[in-house]
Amino acid sequence: MSYEPVIGLEIHIELATKSKMFCSCSADYFNKDPNTHVCPVCLGLPGAMPVANELAIKLTHLIGLALNCSLPLSSKFDRKNYFYPDLAKGFQISQYDLPFTQKGSIEISINGQNKNIGITRAHLEEDTGKLLHSKVNDKNVTLIDFNRSGVPLIEIVSEPDIKSSEEAKAYAQKIQQIVRYIGASDADMEKGSMRIEPNVSLRKVSKGQASSVRELPSYKVELKNINSFKFAAAAIEYEIKRQSELLDKGETPAQETRGWNETKNQTVSQRSKEEAHDYRYFPEPDLPPFVFNQDYLLELKKELPDLPDQKLKSFKDLGLSDYDAEILSRSKDLAVYAMGAIKAGEKAGITAKKIANEIINKKPDINNILPAKLVAKIYQSAQTSDLSDDELTKAVEEVLNENPKAVTDFKGGKENAFMFLTGQVMKKLGKKAESSRVRKILIEKLK
Amino acid sequence: MIDLQNLTIKEASNLLSSRKVSAVELTEAYLAKIEKYNPSLNAYLTVNKSGAIEQAEKVDKLFSQKAKLSPLAGIPIAFKDMFSTKGVRTTAASKVLENYIPVYDATVVSKLNGQNVINLGKTNQDAWAHGSSGENSDFGPAKNPYDTNRVPGGSSSGSAVSVSADLALAATGTDTGGSIRLPASFCNLVGLKPTYGRVSRYGIIAMASSLDSVGHFTKTVWDNALILNYSAGFDTNDATTSQSKVENYAEGIEKGIKGLKIGLPKEYLDGLDPETKELVKKAAGFLEKLGAKIIDISLPNTEYGVATYYIIQPSEVSSNLARYDGIRFANPRDKFGAEAKRRIILGTYTLSSGYYDAYYLKAMKVRRLIVKDFTDAFEKVDLILAPTSTGPAFKLGEKVDDPLSMYLADVYTVNINIAGVPSLNIPGGFIDNLPVGIQIIGPNFSEKLIYQTAFAFEQETKFYERTPSI
């Protein structure tokens, strides 16, 4: 029996705002002493109330625009009620039926083949605290660090349009790239500022059935605890294999949450459907609903920087290969740098291809070498390499004839005379020449 | 020796600023009365003795330096135990928070502290503000000073008792469904439920966030208006506070009510206890005599108020109480009392998937209709006059075993919270020597007009002058 994987991704990304989502504590919690970035609000103390971080909402809107989502004019926060020790208030402030952005899509590319992946929604919520399992006075204890509690978190939910681990990886990397381009987050999987949760199920494929009318499978397996693209791909591969074996036996895989165990290289059951939460969502009464106006949304569009696809296209328009364009547009910083260098190169008559080669092969330190300087360097070496050995030899011979005294001095042991002769050759050439080549020919002729 | 009994804030403020009485003397007089009467009245859960004296000493020093101080400087007041007070135990009258000491002040507490009020202590209440009699307190009920066999009304029971028995010059409260107005009615006090969003809720233990209003009790209307001058206003820590301008509510309070149109809603009078109805009609007569025009009006969705309230309120309660898990602070959850558990179960049910549409969503739709009732009414009239309670204070234990009849004690107050509009209870007279209040309801942010009307009524009737003998 053959099956078609049906995969959707939930991606959580922490936004790089200065303060937390609903209080003024610093959101920069990574590697800080436990419970040092806390206040009554993010600790959920009695009476404390949330106030929404406007920058986080703006970044969510920008990400939504970048994902080609629509931005509804009215939106609100809701309470998602559940109990867990790392959840200070006993509920998470999230968004239920009116997210800030919804219904978009992005294009991924695999081996030159493009494919659209639908985005269901991108909504804003707050992160939870962190549990630390450790030992105090020889007793096993669980400690809670609330530094992460209340850090703004965007959840991007894809449509179940993904058909392979390769596509899932490409999609997640594209999301990471876009978010980084906007400067909304470092989206670092290892630090946990980006987290991927794939939903995987399989459907039977029968001949002659149009893919678009196929129904979704009756079950769904949610994969958690994944902290790299590699593991995401491995976990999906593992699930496809596990589920198809079950289906081959005539069994339906259980609807459940499974975690990725990186030492065993397999997914492990964590929670079954029977234990699924009823989150009892209702509108957050402490935060009035939002009404945005068209002008604000139009202004936002102007603020949206060039995105990876646009940069890629501009590099291709300059005649660069798909390969070169892809590498140069991987990060916004590199893309901006390369474009700057190409513009500067144009004036000096250096081709885009030549500059792309220099950047891709020699990997200059783009934080310290200005694009103009890089172009000057390329120009220099271009000039010198144009010089033929014949031209050089000719110049050396002329200089030796014109300066008999210096030649005598050199032969008499005066090192300075050699320096003088080198200088004279360079002067005669009128352009920069590689001094090593000049010296080499001079020594030959002086023998 | 100056008589320090039964002062108003206005009188006490004059004594302090003319330095006939020091803040320490005044504070000590109140602390002495608290020591004497609190064991029988149970108004205070925590007396802030040393803290109060310390604050009073500071105020006296400021007076001696001829500092320019507000009329509230040196005025001894009490805070309902829902208000977070830095360093002073705050229990919400629940055993869950029996030992909880806040690390921060509620916005209203710091605003009033900024005016140099004296914090006498924290007052008794129904635990988590769940109740209409004060009997749901985990630390025993407060008693009505007019008859200690009767309830003072709740949930802000101790606050009402403290002012009524002259154990404080004013006290703060919270009003989610009548928790300020009902005890004010039972204790012959002026009690304000301001417009939703007029006074910050930050730092006040949340009961039902979309309904909670933060107000206060005083003996007189002028005193009440004065406090709102300092407690009201936009707060960057409470996103639901309004940016609309805070008026000087005491200024021009004597303006009078000539030509004012005051509505009398028939739904609040049909079926009302005859004696209370008589009292309300009499009140209307006084207002008419003062120059107002009384107009019969209708608030057609009134009958759905209590049902709507008992969906929305427990839903929010169930979520707001979730943080009391005993992990970061406070006692474990088994310390919750029966009423809190009842509301957690009710609210969890009404928000559950499959029931949400039938209960919560439906209640929110009815809420819009009730809001519209008031909006429509205020097209025709400037203010509305209504009873606050079905009658005078009931007896301790009378309703405690019947939650539904206890819930119905709020029948005349909950709709005002559902609509979010302001309402002020003022003394309306006496039935069998027990005080009964009336309420003046206005459109959003009409507190100034309400105070002017209440002041005119008060000057005409002087019901506040009749104090309990304790």
Q: What is the tally of helical segments of chain A?
A: 14
What's the shape of chain A?
Answer: elongated
Unreliable stretches covering 5 or more consecutive residues of chain A: none
Structural class of chain A: alpha+beta
Strand order of the largest sheet of chain A: 5-6-9-1-10-11-12-13
Largest sheet of chain B: 11 strands, mixed
- Overall number of strands of chain A: 15
Report the helical percentage of chain A: 25-40%
Q: Averaged pLDDT of chain B, please?
A: 97
Number of domains of chain A: 3
- End-to-end span of chain A in angstroms? 83 Å
Average pLDDT score of chain A: 91
What is the largest interface, and how many residues per chain? A-B, 28 and 42 residues
Radius of gyration of chain A: 31 Å
Low-confidence stretches of chain B are: none
How many β strands of chain B by DSSP?
Answer: 11
Assigned CATH superfamily of chain B: Amidase signature (AS) domain
CATH architecture of chain B: Alpha-Beta Complex
Instruction: Please write the CATH class name of chain B.
Output: Alpha Beta
Instruction: Determine the strand fraction of chain A and express it as a percent band.
Output: 15-25%
